[in-house]
Amino acid sequence: MIRGNLPAKIDDKGRLKIPSAFRIWMDGHGADLFVTSVSGEFVQVYPMSVWEAIEAKLAQVPSAHPSRIKYFDRVNYFGQPAEFDKQGRVSIHARLRESAAMTGEVDVFGQYDHLAVWNHDRFVAKLQREPYSDDDARALAEFGI
Known about the structure:
Elements: E1 2-10, E2 15-17, H1 20-27, E3 32-36, E4 43-47, H2 48-58, H3 66-78, E5 80-83, E6 89-91, H4 94-99, E7 104-112, E8 115-119, H5 120-129, H6 134-141
Antiparallel strand pairs: 1-7, 2-6, 3-4, 3-5, 4-8, 7-8
């Protein structure tokens, strides 16, 4: 399991250097990755084994289900298989890099079984736009949190 936030940089060639604390966990899943997004607002980096487990669950949903179609349309539009290079970097292809504003300083979040990569300014704006409310706290309290 991975958690927390570590800063990183996207280099001039569109490569993300995975922070070493996250890389250690991800190395346990191998070098193969799936780099994608559902919204195009941020990047999701999945170890391929984790992504294949998601695909196995989606295979249980009828192929004509509109939500399944929309989901696959988006993750395939923004997504590409990738792998770590010898320096622990992963390439983010141009379409997703542009859509998610992946330049310069970024924030890399551990999201239990994958990484979420956000443009720093975009994430700070999201925090301000979507404050954690008393309703959120009550909703989570129903789950004992």
